[in-house]
C-alpha cells in the first residue's frame, strides 16, 4: 500500500510539473547583429502568451564553439553559412530545420560627427583616406563573419594587403561599431542594419554586392532541442511571415 501510494504521489508530481516543463523558455544563441530585431521579436512572442526567449548574443564563431562544447542552446542563428555548416558537420544541428530567411548588406561607416562619402570601387585607396596611423574597425576576419565579408570586399577592391596592418579587429560587429561611435577609429566596416540602428555613425558607402559572398543568416534547431515543441514553434515564428515585417523594419532583406 505504501509503495502504491508513493508511486501515485510521484505520478501526480510529474503531471503537475508537465505544464511548467512545457513552458520552459527557449534559449537562442544569435549573432550580435540580430540583437535589436530579436529583442522586439522576443517581446512579440511573449505577448502572445509564450515564455519569453532567453537570448545570448555574440559573434557566430563564439556561439558555435560554445554549442560544440555543450552549451544549452535550443536555436542557433548565425551571421553566415560557414558557422552553421561547422555545427551541422558535427551533427549538432537538425539539418531539416535549417533555413536562411534574411540577409544584409556591408557598409563603410564613419563617426556621426565626421561624416564622409566614399566611393567603394576597385582601386579606391582606403589607406590614403585613413591617414597616418589611423585604423579601420571590423570583426576579426579569423573568425567573425563581418570580418570575413570585409576581407573579401577589401580584396576585391585590391586593398586587403595594404589595410591588413591597420585593422582594428573586434570580437563581434557591435564591438567594431562601438569603436567608430566613440571616434576611436575614422572608419568601420559593419552591416547596414547595425549602422541604421546607431545614431553615432553615418554610412560613408555601401560595398557592391559582387565584392563579397551574399550575407545570409541561417537559423536552425540544435540537436539537443530536437524534441522541443516550444523551440520548433519559436523557430517557425522567427523564420516565417509573421516576423518578416519586423526584420524589414530593422533593415534586413530577403536573400535572392
UniProtKB/TrEMBL annotation:
A Pfam family found in this protein is SBP_bac_11
- Quaternary structure and partners: The complex is composed of two ATP-binding proteins (ModC), two transmembrane proteins (ModB) and a solute-binding protein (ModA).
Source species of the chain: Falsiroseomonas stagni DSM 19981
| Entry GO terms, CC | outer membrane-bounded periplasmic space
- UniProt protein name: Molybdate transport system substrate-binding protein
Q: Which GO molecular function, any one, fits this protein according to its record?
A: molybdate ion binding
Q: What is the lineage of its organism?
A: Bacteria, Pseudomonadati, Pseudomonadota, Alphaproteobacteria, Acetobacterales
Please list the residues that bind molybdate. Answer: 33, 60, 173, 191
Among SUPFAM superfamilies, the record links this protein to: Periplasmic binding protein-like II
A GO BP term here is:
molybdate ion transport
In the UniProt record, the signal sequence range is 1-22
**Is Transmembrane helix one of the keywords?**
no
Which family is this protein grouped under?
Belongs to the bacterial solute-binding protein ModA family.
